[in-house]
Here is the input.
Amino acid sequence: MHALIAPLALILERWQGYPPRLLDQIGHPVIWMGNLLTWLEQRLWKVGQSAEQRRTRGIVALVALLGATLVVTVMVQQVLRGIPLGWVLEILLATPFLAQKELGRAVQAVADALLTSLEAGREAVSHIVGRDPQQLDSAGVSRAAIETLAESTSDGVVAPWFWLILLGLPGIALYKAINTADSMIGHHNARYADYGWAAARLDDLVNLVPARLTAVLVTIASFFVSGASPSKAWQAAKRDAMQHRSPNSGWPEASFAGALGFSLGGPRSYDGEMVDLPIMGQGETRLGPYHITRALTLYRVTLNVLLVVSSVLALLILAA
Here is the structure.
């Protein structure tokens, strides 16, 4: 049933996204997860704790988040599986954990803003990256948008789909909870290095397969994008991905860079601190709105490839 639901969830979310009216009225599941994490942090993180105490309490926070997510989603899935057409509601409940439409919209907004002014581009990109936007020139803004698009293709689309296929509604919700915890507390800084250790390590683990799968999907998509190179996409992924400080982020970034003939990565500033990251790909460095548009074309074709793969899996299961 999980495999049958997945392609329909992909289609619905890509077409409809998460309704703004629903967001205004009840929020979003990721917001609920974030609120729970914040509530737990306020009670568990204390000044003066030892590294071991913070690591232990970070584990407690993560277990509490995952436990709550698991209990709710398993109960909901069991109820839905027991009623007529409950699978339709299961599709609806899975779509908020995918980010196809919103990711494309947010990255397109950066390209559109850059056509207006550098300041507008910096403002637009500040909504999707953690680095300091005021330190970026036009090429830096463009590179940041493309890197986010590449990485989020994996952890915003492919990985949630992967865990939906494997474990259904609880799987996709648990993945999103882990990813949200990593985004909020999985930072290598004084506050979260220990408290967010478990969240960061678990996020690395659940993204191992999806990140590499994303590189494969991007490589396949490159066959259908004018000017893109499938061979260079895969060569860049194999050559550059493991140089990244993340065991996973380099795979989608390098495959995008190789396919499109860009150079991504390199030094950037986070909260005033310079971080030196390796270069992904070998090619154009002076990027602009046009290059963001090219990356978005590759992104959309990659989504088409994913949908085909998901549909074929569903058909094979139906035929079995």
Summary: The chain has a mean pLDDT of 94. The radius of gyration is 20 Å. The chain has one domain: 2-314.
